[in-house]
Amino acid sequence: MAPFLVSLRVVLLSLRVLTVAFLVITVIILSTNSVTIVSQGNSLKFHFKDVYAYRYMFSAAIIGLLYAVIQLFFSISELATRTKNPFNYQLDFYGDKIISYLVATGSAAGFGVTKDLKDTFLALVVLDSTDPVDKLFSRGYASASMLLFAFFCLAVLSVFSSHTIAKHQFS
C-alpha cells in the first residue's frame, strides 16, 4: 500500500478520535450542568434537562457519539487489516453527512438558547449573585463549542468520504 494512503488513513483515524473526544466532553459538560440559583431568599434548582434546546443538544451529542464510536471501530479494523468492506463506503458517505448536520444543528441550538436565556435571566430575575448564572451559561457555551468542533471534524471526514465514494464508483 502506498505511504500516502496509509498516512491518509491515519489522518482520518485521528479525526475520528478527535470527534469522539469532543463528543464525550460535550456529554460530560452537559450532563453535569446544573446550578442552584438564589433570588431574594428563594432557591431554584436549574438543570440542563429543563431546557428543550439543551436536551436536543445532548441527544445530538449522544447519537453522534454512538456513530463516531462505530466508525472508529471500523477505521481501526480497516487500518489493521488494510481492507475495507464495500458497505463501509456507503456508511461513511451517508453517515458522515447526516450525523454532521445533526451535530451542527445541536451546536447552533446550544449557542442560541444559551445567549437568549442568559439575557432573559439577567433582565428579569433579581439575583443575589450572578456567579451561578454565569457558571451555568459558560458551561452551555463550552458544550456548544465542543459540539461545533466535533462538527468540523465530521465535515472534513464527510469531504473525504465523498471523494472516496466517487473514486470507487467511477473506477
UniProtKB/TrEMBL annotation:
A cellular component annotation (GO) from this entry: plasma membrane
Domain (Casparian strip membrane protein) ranges: 8-153
Assembly, per entry: Homodimer and heterodimers.
Organism: Brassica campestris
Pfam families linked: CASP_dom
Compartments (UniProt record): Cell membrane
Chain ranges passing through the membrane: 6-31, 52-74, 141-160
Protein's name in the database: CASP-like protein
